[in-house]
Amino acid sequence: MKLKESLRRIPARQNNPALYSDEELEECRCANCGHVFRGNYCPVCRQEVGDGHITWKWVGKSILDVWGMDTRSLPNTLLQLLWRPGHLIGDYIGGHRQVCYKPVNMLFIVALAYVILMQIIGQEDNFNAAEIADYDRTGYFNIINTCYHWMVAHPGWAMMILTMIMILPTFIVFRFAPRHPHLTFPENIFIQVFMSTLMLVVAFTIRVSNGITIFLIPLYYYICYRQLFGYKFWGTTWRLAVCFFVWSCLAFYLIVVVLVVAVRQKELANPVRATIYGIVMLTLGTAVLIAIPLSIAYFISRKKAKRRQQPSL
User: Fold this and answer.
1) Is residue 90 part of a domain?
2) Rounded to the nearest 5°, which phi and psi values hold at 36?
3) Which residues pair with 38 in a beta bridge?
């Protein structure tokens, strides 16, 4: 097969890897009930084709079934998440629940594996508190240091929190996407659960490569969102840029709120009142800052969606 033809078939394989053969299924007889049928499972008793004599393959499959490592195996799902992230997520939220491992379970298993692998390869934490503590006069560093080490110790929760910030901008900016229009808010939650797992795998490669593969984070977000929502290059790029801008604002807002609440304010006459006032003003400022790009992106996307729906003359 020529290289050009192989490259042409890559998007088709990513879109639906199950369509790899056009051969018709042979007629077979069920070993359990004797029914003659075509397919992978008997329509009468639901027994799988080939369940007759016990072989070593059947023994291995039975062991894997105990741990959920059957056709929806965790390794297979991770490979799909790396190879066709947007299509896999689109299949799942579109109702094809059997195409992958349970996403929430997968996230916590990958997070546990991340912690174990970090211990095995001996990656040291370069966030040295001793070198910077002498310059800290306000207590800010102690709080940031505590939050950082909590994120390192709980990568699953930390990655979920960071990616969940993308729910709101994704829900608004990509709401009128050609491929999956009118996504619900819960569906956007599961999109970010998948992205949390993917970002944990990417984070592992970044730690191992000492930051060389940092470009994989925006690259995978672009690949995933383009496959999932169906926009072309510029449509995906500028919408994703808006999402990252809003994500940065919301992440900065959460960090400042933590600092405002946690830092001791002994020199203030009324620390509670000052803290509430600071949080309210920060909330209003952040809301105005993110409302402008989100509104522009929303109305542009809605206008383009109406144009797509208009019948061509």
Assistant:
1) no
2) -95, 130
3) 27
Contact 61, 48 (CB under 8 A): no
Residue 37 pairs in a beta bridge with 28
Residue the block writes with tokens 């709980």? 154
Q: Are 35 and 142 within one domain?
A: no
222, burial (CB in 10 Å: exposed 0-12, middle 13-18, buried 19+): middle
- Distance between CA 221 and CA 174 in Å, rounded? 13
Q: Which residue has the tokens 């409302």?
A: 291
pLDDT in tens, 200-246: 998 888 878 877 888 888 999 999 999 999 999 999 999 999 999 99
Asked if the structure places residue 16 within a domain, the reply is no
Are both 256 and 149 inside the same structural domain?
Answer: yes
The pLDDT tens digits of the residues spanning 31-68 come to 778 888 777 778 887 777 765 666 776 676 666 665 55
Together in a domain, 50 and 180: no
Q: What range does the domain containing 53 cover?
A: 31-66
The C-alpha atoms of residue 10 and residue 15 are separated, in whole angstroms, by 9
By CB atoms closer than 10 A (0-12, 13-18, 19+), residue 265 is middle
